[in-house]
């Protein structure tokens, strides 16, 4: 079961033990998906809007398949993920 989204996301990136745990599917904060705010479901991803966005219009596009890097996704999921990301980027300019 994944961890809940961290209250201090910077710690998850800078603490080696926390980061190593988050790289695994069991420690991933997005697997299984636990929306923590408003979201939209797209074919290969979920679009999350954090409660405390760092910038106006900031959203997260999260793959439905666990991956550390987007290029690790198998095709055709990789192509669909990027299509979802571009669709989100175009839509978020209107927010
Ligand atoms: Zn994951």
User: Can you write the helix and strand succession as a string?
Assistant: HHEEEH
Distance between the termini: 33 Å
Find the structural class using helix and strand composition. Answer: alpha+beta
**What are the bound molecules?**
zinc ion
The number of distinct structural domains comes to: 2
Low-confidence runs of at least 5 consecutive residues: none
Record field, number of beta strands: 3
Number of helices: 3
Give the strand order of the largest sheet, numbering strands 1, 2, ... along the chain.
1-2-3
| Global mean pLDDT | 82
Explain what the structure shows.
With 95 residues, this protein is α+β, with helices and mostly antiparallel strands. It has 2 domains: 1-34, no CATH class; 37-95, no CATH class. 31% of the residues lie in helices and 12% in strands. It contains 3 helices and 3 strands. Strands 1-2-3 form a 3-stranded antiparallel β-sheet, covered by helices on one side. The relative contact order is 0.14. The model has no long low-confidence stretch (mean pLDDT 82). The structure holds zinc ion.
């Amino acid at each position: 079961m994944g961890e809940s989204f961290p209250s201090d996301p910077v710690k998850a990136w800078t603490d080696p033990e926390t980061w190593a745990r988050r790289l695994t599917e069991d420690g991933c904060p997005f697997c299984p998906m636990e929306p923590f705010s408003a979201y939209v479901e797209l074919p290969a991803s979920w679009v999350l809007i954090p409660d405390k966005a760092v910038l106006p219009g900031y959203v997260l596009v999260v793959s439905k398949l666990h991956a550390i890097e987007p290029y690790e996704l198998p095709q055709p999921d990789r192509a669909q993920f990027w299509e979802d990301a571009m669709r989100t980027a175009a839509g978020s300019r209107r927010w």
